[in-house]
Design goal:
It is a single chain. By secondary structure, the chain is α+β, with helices and mostly antiparallel strands. It has a single domain, classed as Deoxyribonuclease I, Chain A, CATH 3.60.10.10. The protein has 5 helices and 12 strands. The protein has a 6-stranded mixed β-sheet, with no helix packed on it. Strands 5-6-7-8-10-9 form a 6-stranded mixed β-sheet, with no helix packed on it. Helix 4 packs parallel to helix 5.
Length: about 260
């Protein structure tokens, strides 16, 4: 009897000293799916999403056609989603495998381009997810503007948009995932403003394999600029990768993330 009791005590001690395994990392993806994609290209983009199986997906240039195809093929995989498709380039969506507690579409400042945020329940944690699309370099504001006039104007506008995002989330104390099509690389003023506000770039994390994201799979030209990004605050980011496939003029970017201790 004493030997049995000793064995039980040793077993309980061993169980009590065992450190529970860390939860598996989550995966995020940012993807501009191209508003003018053909049905075949939509299918190719859905193939990438289905293959990667991100937990959190930020979709830009989300059209009614893409939203319908996404729901038909992957709706059961992403039951907690907010998709706000539009014709043209302003559609936005967040697709999630985890429960959405709250969503809000907001107009980016100083331009009205729509962005989307969501509070996501992941286990015992609450994660704020923000899906954005900053002003494109070649967008015109006046009928007579050419490319040479538009590029510097839009660079200034993007900086203001970046600073507006910094201001919007300055008091946010919890973990925050910010991702989307920023239309500039990490040296741009908007990206620099976010970096100064302690937003870490996934491609600076361990195991990253990043690079240019535009133009993407639908272009005969090689990709030359990194404009699609995943950023985090109070998160650990790793394994970021540009996925050189799909059916868009942007390559998708994915990264693993976890909650900082």
């Amino acid at each position: 009897m004493r030997l049995q009791r000793l064995a039980v005590l040793l077993l309980l001690a061993a169980c009590g000293s065992h450190t529970p395994a860390s939860p598996p990392p989550l995966k995020a993806m940012a993807y501009n799916v191209l508003y003018s994609s053909s049905e075949e290209d939509v299918r190719k983009s859905l193939d990438v999403i289905a293959k990667e199986q991100p937990d959190i997906l930020c979709l830009r240039e989300l059209t009614p056609r893409f939203a319908r195809a996404f729901q038909q093929r992957l709706g059961k995989e992403y039951p907690h989603s907010q998709l706000l498709p539009r014709k043209g380039t302003w559609g936005v969506g967040i697709a999630s495998r985890h429960r959405l507690l709250r969503t809000e579409q907001f107009s980016q400042r100083p331009h009205r381009m729509p962005a989307l945020e969501a509070d996501v329940r992941v286990g015992k944690q609450k994660l704020k997810v923000v899906c954005v699309h900053l002003m494109a370099p070649g967008s015109t504001h006046r009928k007579g503007d050419g490319l040479l006039e538009s590029i510097p104007k839009n660079a200034v506008l993007r900086e203001k948009q970046g600073r507006a995002l910094v201001k919007r989330y300055a008091r946010e104390q919890g973990p925050l995932l910010l991702l989307g099509d920023m239309n500039e690389d990490r040296s741009g003023a908007a990206m620099q403003a976010l970096a100064a506000a302690d937003f870490a770039h996934a491609c600076d994390g361990p195991g990253a394999s990043c690079g240019a994201t535009w133009p993407g799979a639908t272009s005969v030209l090689p990709s030359i600029v990194e404009i699609d990004h995943i950023l985090g605050r109070r998160l650990t980011l790793a394994g970021a990768k540009v996925l050189r496939e799909g059916g868009s003029d942007h390559y998708p970017v994915r990264a693993s993330f976890g909650f900082a201790p």
